[in-house]
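Note to self: keep these together.
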Amino acid sequence: MSKEHIYETNLVWTGNLGDGTKTYKGYSRAHEISIEGKPKIAGSSDPHFNGDASRYNPEEMLVAALSACHMLYYLHLCADAGIVVTDYQDDAAGKMIETADDGGHFTEVVIRPRVIISKESDANLANEIHHKAHEFCFIANSVNFPVLTEAQILIEKSSAAD
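Structure:
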């Protein structure tokens, strides 16, 4: 039996500069995304599409969602397997192409987790768990382009007391 989850958000366009969308360059792409009980996210479009570079754009948020989803599953699976993760960072990147019809789509996202594990942990198993985390990630399972993982596993350095 599968469980269903509903995620509700609110989006408000805040970019009417007085004339609405009378002209393509005559309005701001500014908007706010809110979820009850959480801080608002200041959004815009990518600067290539007349957006504000100081605000998050949907493309960045998609890449971040893939990165975060993988990390959360990875940490869960490591905890279950007895792998002690002491640090996790990811420099993810997504590639999007524009099409001739003014549309576009992502062609891939590459996540690059840099994971530090305790000396007692099994580095081979820690690396294998990335594959399992990828298989379980809800977001990666929902997109129609490849999500690639280029993981790096490092062993925590000995402390001065060792």
